[in-house]
Amino acid sequence: MAAEVQVTELEQVYRAVHTLYNDSNSIPMSDKQAASSWLNDFQRSVKAWEIADQLLHKKMDLYSCYFGAHTLRTKIQGFFHELPLEAHLSLRDSLLQHIAAISSDTDHIIVTQLCLAVAHLILQASTWADPISHLLGTFGSDPSHWWPVVEILTLLPEEVHSRKLHLGENRRHQVNAQLESASPNVLNFLRQCLTVSLGNSAPPGVPTDLLKVSILKCFASWVTSNPDCFCNDRQGEVLRYAVENLRSGKAGQKIHTASTDCICAVIEVVPDIDASSNNNALELQSFQLNLYTSIISFEEAYHYSVAEEDQDKVMNYCRIFTEYGESMIPYMLRSWRDPHYSINIINYILICEGHHDYDVAELTFGFWYRLSEDLYHAHDESLNAVFRSFAQRLVVALYKHCQMEPDHEGPLTSSDEFYEFRRKASELVEDIMFIVNSQQAFQELGQLFIMENSWECKESALFLLYHVARSIDTRDSTVIGPIVEAVLNFTDWRHISLKISAIRFLGGMSAWLAKHPDDVLEKTMNFLVNSLPATECSSTAAAALQNVCQQCADHIAGRYINNLLTIVGQLDTYNVCNDAVVGLLKGVGHVVGTLPRDQLSQIIRQICWAQLHPLNQLCDTDASSPYQKGTKSDPTFWIDRLAALFRNTSVQNSRDGTMVEHPCKPAICEDVWPVISKVLNKYQADSRVMERVCRCVRYAVRCVGRHSHPFLEPLVMQLVALYGAHHHSCFLYLGSILVDEYGEDAQCVEGLLQMLAAFIPPTFAILNEPSGLRNHPDTVDDFFRLCTRFLQRCPIALLKSDILSTLVTYATQATQLDHREANMSVVKFLFDLVHAGRRHNDLACFAERKTLVRNTMMQHGPNLITMLIHGVIFQLPTYTIGDICELLYEIKEMMPKEYASWIENALKQLPENTPAGTQAATLTQLESFHKQATGARSPKELSRSLKDFCRLYR
C-alpha cells in the first residue's frame, strides 16, 4: 500500500490541503472553495487509496495527516468495492502500521479517523479471519498501543449497525457472531487495561486517563452486544470501577460521564437479560438488586454535586435515575398489590425534579412519558392509585419550574428556551392527568392562583390550568365555576404574561362555557373582546374568542350575534394583528353557520364585502406598485380572512335533506369570484399570492359545493392559462379540488379532462429537466393528486383516455423520488389505478373498468414491479415501504399469476453482492421472499417481509 506514486500528484494534494486549511487571510475564499471541491473529487478517485496511505506515512503536517486518515476512512466506508479481494490484507497491514505509530501526542481527530477505518475494514473484509484476536495478539502485550485498540473495539458494536456501510443482513449476522464469540477475550483485555491504568506499572507515555475513559466507553459499547457476558462478569472490575467513580463523585468530568454511559448501558440491557431463557433466575435477581443498590447509593454524591454547582455531574446522576426508572417500568407495573422495589427510584427522580434548574427536570420527562403511556394502556385504576402521589408531586414541581423570572419583561416568545420547556412541561401535565385526578389538580392550581401574591406564581398556575382544563368534567360547576369567576374578577394585571395566560385559560374553558352559558359566557366574551386592542394580547384573545365561538356557537348566535358583528366590523380600528383577525373570523364562521338562511346570506355578504372592497382597490391600483408583506397593501392580508370565513362556515341541509340554494352562494359567486379573478390576473407571477388565492377558492368551493357551478368554467380556463405561463403547482392542487367536487357530474367530466390534458405539457416539461422530479416535488405531489381524483370520481373517463399510458409511465419513474409527500401521492395514484379494477364490483361499469385496468397493468406492470422492489431496497427510505406494499398487495389481489411472475423477474435483476462485496441474498433467501411476497395475506404481512428482505442489501 505504501508504494510510491508520482510526486506531482502528491504535491498537488498537499497544495490543495494547505489552501483549504490555511487560516491566512491572504488566501481568497474562492480558492478555498475550489480546493475543497477538488479534494472531494479526488477522494472519489481510485488513486486516492495510495496517496492517502502515503500522506500518513510521510507525516508532513497535521492537516495532511488528517486528510489522509479521513480519505482512507471515506474510501473504506463508501468505496470498498473498488479494491480487489487480494488487496484487502495489504490494506489491513498498512492500516495496522498507522495504528502502531499512534502515540499520546497524536491528534485525537486523526486517531478517530484511523480507528474508524480499521473498524470498517473489519466489518467489511470477510478475508480478515478472526480480526479481534489478530488485533489483541498484535497489540495486546504493549500498553503504548492499548488506547487506539480500545477505540477500535469500541466502534465495532456501534458501526455494525451503520446503514452507511451497506453490510447486508447476512454479513451483519456473521459479524455479530464474531463479536459474541470474542466477548470473553475483549472483557479480559479491558480488565488488563484497567488494572495497568489504575496501578503504578503503566510505562511512560501511556495516556492512562484517556485509556480509563476509553475502557469505560468500550465496556458500554460491548455490553449491548453481549449483555450476558458483560453483566454476568463475576469479577466485574470495570463495572465496579464505574460505580465507585459515581458513588464518590470526585472523578474528573470525562471519567464521570464515561462511568455514567457505562451504567446506563447496563441499565438498558437489564430487560433483555431478563427476557433471555439462558439466565439463572437467582443470579439475575441478585444482579438486578445489586444494580439498584448501587444506583440509590449515588444520592449523596448527587447532593454534593448540587452543592458544588457541578451541573454536568448533576445531569449525569439525573440521567442514571431516569433511565433506570424507565427500564424498570415493566417491573413496576406487574402488580399493584406487591409493588416492585424499583418503584422507589421515582423518589430519586422527584429529587431531581426539585433541582432549581429546569434543564435537570426536563431530563426526567422521558420516564414520565413512558410511565403514563404504559399506565394508560394498562387501564387499571388500582395501578393508577399506586403512582398517584408521585404524579401529584410532579405537578407541584412543574408548577414551580414553569414560573417565570420576577424581573422578566414582556411575554415569552417561541425562540426562548424556557418557552420550549414550558411547552413540554404542559404536554406532560396533560399526559398524567388521568393518574392525578384532573378535578383535584384543577382545584389546587386554582387555589394557587387565588392565594399566591406574586404575578409569576399566579401566571404559572393559570398556564397549567389551561392544560388541566382539557381533562376536566365539563358538567361540574362547584369546582370550576368559582375559579373561572376569580379570573374574570381579577384586575391586577401587573404583567402582560399574566394577562395572556388568563386569556388562554378562558379560551380553554370554552367547552365548559357551552355547558354553563348562563353563568359567565357574556362576561367571558366581554373580557376577551376588551383584550383585543392590546397588541401583545390580541392574537391570544382572538384565538380564545375563536374557541368560545366554536363551542358556544348556538348560544352566541341567539344572544350576542349583533355584538359579535360589531366587533368584526371594528377590528381594523383596533391595533390587532391580522393573524388574530383571521383567528376570530374562524370563530365567526362557526357562529353564522347556525343562523337562519336568509339572515346568514346577508351577514356573509356583509363580512365578505368588508374584505373585498380593499382587495378590489388593490387590483385597481398601478400593476407595478409593490406591496409590503403583512400589511393592508398585501393582497393575502384580505384573502386569508376570506379563506378562514369560508373554511369554518358550515351550513346544515334542510330537514328533508335538500338545499335549494346555498345561502353563501350569492356572496361567493357574485361578490367574491369577480374580485378573486382580478387578483389571479394581477398577481399571477407571485407564487405566494397564488397559493393563498387557491387556498381561498378551495374553501369557497368546499363551502358551497356544486353551488359554485356558475364560476367553474371561467375558473378552469383561467387556471389553465395561468399554469401554462407560470407553472405554480397550487393550480394543480386547486384543479384536484374541482375534480373532487364535480368529477361525478357527467356534464363536467369532459371539461375537467381537458383541463388535465392542458396541464400535462407544462408539467412534464418541468419534470423532464435534469433532476426535474427531485427539484419539483410539489409539482409531482399536486399533479398526481389531481390524477388520483379522476380515478376516484370518474375512473372510466381517465382509464379510456389517451393520456393514461403517459401518466403511468411518469408515475413509475416518480416512485423513485425520495420525498415523503410526493412519493405518497404517486403511489396513491398507482394504487387507485389498480383498485379501480376491483372496487364497486356491483356496478354496471365494473367489467369495463376491470378490463381497462388489466390492459394497462399488462403493459406497465413488469417495469413498475421492478422499479418498486429495487427502489425500496436501494433508494427509498424505509417509511415508503408501507404505502408501496399496499400497492403491491393490490396488484397481487387483482392479478396473482402475473404478479408472481413480475416479482420473480424483479428478483432476478438484483445484484448478487452488497456494495461491500459480500453476498447479499442467497438463492434460498430469494426463493423465501418470493414465497412470502406471493403468499402474503395482508399488506402489513407483505411489508414485514419486504423490510426483512431489504436488510439483506443494506
Automatic annotation (TrEMBL):
It comes from Orchesella cincta (Springtail). Residues 36-100 form the Importin N-terminal domain. This is Transportin-3. It comes from the Eukaryota. One of its GO terms (biological process) is protein import into nucleus. One of its GO terms (molecular function) is small GTPase binding. GO terms for cellular component: cytoplasm. SUPFAM superfamilies: ARM repeat (SSF48371). InterPro entries: ARM-like (IPR011989), ARM-type_fold (IPR016024), Exportin-1/Importin-b-like (IPR013598), Importin-beta_N (IPR001494), Importin_beta-like_NTR (IPR051345), TPR_TNPO3_IPO13_2nd (IPR057941), TPR_TNPO3_IPO13_3rd (IPR057942), TPR_TNPO3_IPO13_4th (IPR058537). Residues 108-226 form the Exportin-1/Importin-beta-like domain.
